[in-house]
Amino acid sequence: MVADPLQRGAAVESAARAHLESAGLRWLAANVRFRGGELDLVMRDPATGTLVFVEVRYRRSAVFGGGAASVDAGKRRKLVHAAQLYLASNARYADAPCRFDVVEASGEPPRLHWITDAFRADDC
After folding, report:
1. Which domain of life is it from (predicted)?
2. How far apart are CA 58 and CA 75, in angstroms?
3. Are 56 and 70 in contact (CB under 8 A)?
4. Which of 5, 18, 46, 82 is deepest in the core (most CB within 10 A)?
5. Shortest CA distance to 12 belongs to which of 115, 108, 117?
6. What is the pLDDT along the chain (124 residues), one digit of tens a residue?
7. How many C-alpha atoms does 5 have within 13 Å on its Cβ side?
């Protein structure tokens, strides 16, 4: 069990990345920071060319709704804004289809639950 929250977050993000890669996604970037938002993982689905922006959320327990429930409207707006900035700074992906996924992790050791297409940019 990792005591430090930053170390736990890094370990959960690493596990989420490995899980997504084992499902066929390709890693592009992690912890991409922009003013007003951060992208935990940026992946690409080589089968469809879709750019996948992944929010990773850890909760010790799912009693109060789990990680996905914590991605509220404000957080979704920040993620969409960060994704727009990522696309603007990476012109080669400007025309790629995009989606927003959430990987929630809970418990010790963390169990992962991947929610594909968790929300849409036009929902924000």
Report:
1. Bacteria
2. 15
3. no
4. 82
5. 108
6. 456 777 888 889 999 999 999 999 999 999 999 988 899 999 999 999 999 999 999 877 656 666 677 788 899 999 999 999 999 999 999 899 999 999 998 877 788 999 999 998 887 5
7. 4
